[in-house]
Structures are given as C-alpha cells and as structure tokens.
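ARCHIVE CARD
Drawer: 12
Card no.: 0347
Subject: one protein chain, sequence and derived structure
Cross-reference: see card 0346
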Amino acid sequence: MKAFLLSLLLLAPPALAEDAHVTALMNKGEAAARQRDWRGALALFRQAENGEPGNVRVLLRISRLCTDLIDVTKPEDAAHKVAEQALDYARRALALDPHSAKAHLSVGVCYGRLTDFVGNKTKLEYSKIVKSESEKSLALDASDDFAWHVLGRWHLGVANVSGMLKTLARLIYGGLPPASNEEALRCLKKAAELAPRRIMHHAELAHVHEAMGRRDLALQEWQRVLGLRAADPEDADYLKEARAAVDARLPRSGDLQSPNPPLRALSQPRLAPHASATQPASRHTPPIGVIAPSTFTSVSARA
C-alpha cells in the first residue's frame, strides 16, 4: 500500500548498543536521516549491522530507510528490489524478536509498500498480511499511534476498494476481510488521541470523513491540520492538501459559488509519504497494505 507511511515515523534515537562504535554509527545514521540523506544513513546503519548483525533496532532502521528510498529509486524494477530488501530486514528483525511490536508493524508496512509492484491477486494476499501484522503489533503495544494509524488506513482502503477488486476477491477468496469506514474512524481517532499533534492522523481522519460523506467534519480535521506544526517528512504534502481543501470549502468575499463545493475526491492521490519539494515521488504509495491507490505514509514503522 501508499506513507506511512505509517512513515510513518520517526527519528527517535536508538537505545544504546553494547558496542560503542556501533552506537556512534547509529547516532551518525540518525543525524543523516534527519537531513533526509537516506542513502548516507543507510550506509552508516549497514556498517552498524556489520558490527552487531543481531541488533534488532539496527535491522528495523535499515528496513525503514529502504522504504524511504523506494519512491526516489528508478527504474521501477530497482525500486521493487529496494522494497524487497526492506521486507527482508523487517522479517529478520521479527525472527530475532517475535515479541517486538515494531517488528510486526514493520513487516506489515513493508508488505503494504510491495503492493505497488504486484498484481491484484498478490495485492489481496499482502493486504491480509498487513492487517494481521498490525493487529499483532497492537496486541503487543496498544500505545503505538503508528500501529493504530496503519490499521485505520487498512480499513479505509479495503472498505472503499474498487468494484473490480471486490469481485476478484470474492471469486478467489470468497470476499475481502471485513473492513469499514466506521472501524477506520475508530482506529484513526485512537491514533489522534495518542498523538494529537501528529498531522498525519488528522489528515487521514479527514479522508475517512470524506469517504463517509461528512464534509463538515472533514473540513474540521483539515483545519486542525493547518493549526499544527510540520514534524514528519510527509507533513508538507498533508499541509498543501489541507490548504486546498479548506480553500475549496470556505468561499472568499464576494464569491458567488456554492459555499459547499465538494472536497478533494478520495481517489485522488497525494504525494507519497516521504516525498518533498526536493524529493518528488515517482509512485503513489497506496494506503498501507491496501489495494486502492491513495495515500500512505506512510506510514513506515520506526525503529
């Protein structure tokens, strides 16, 4: 699926490693990541991996950095390989620590990113994994706002999937897993309660309200977005989207147009989670592990 994943999210410094040299490499890697130097950060974390190949935090951070690179890697075959590398590192971390909530979430996010590169039948298979892994993550740590965000994005994407894919899912699997906009709303509200100043949660709540035809509530969430300070890589794109949505709904003085023109259509994708003015996205990331093309942060799991 598309940011952002569940980007995602973000740059909390890792716990101290036993080896001082590895710790120094991890700290330098985090500094490079804060400058959005994904490749430089990745090189440093791979050096840290050489020092401590069993360090789960290092493996998860490498997975995250690989997902950061997907949207700026060309051609598409090369981007696909980077997405596969992200999954490989997430799975290695999970094998080392099956009780890591972040590892489960990272695996789910990676399968979501891979849906950009596979056919519809595989998208459906991966979508189930995204839901399962995000639920396992929440069972281990229900205080993770990113995990609630990912699960909410999954419900939003699956509940509003195209008729063609619904038919395909019914023929192959007997139908999609249960999903609803109501459950998307519940999950994203929980994410926003846990991290009320995180822009992505309110932006995706606006998308849910739009999908449910609640334009006034969507407008309220977009206005909340505009009142928050950008902190995550995908926030600049959400802020642009929020400004466009608010401008479309609030008529200017003397404007004779309807005071309630429709908000941005849910099917109209925004930039991918880690895109910025200096890093244009070459692909739109679908909602985390979901099938319909739209946003996802983002959300990448953070180590």
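Annotation on reverse: Residues 76-96 form the longest helix (21 residues). The CA atoms of residues 54 and 218 lie 45 Å apart.
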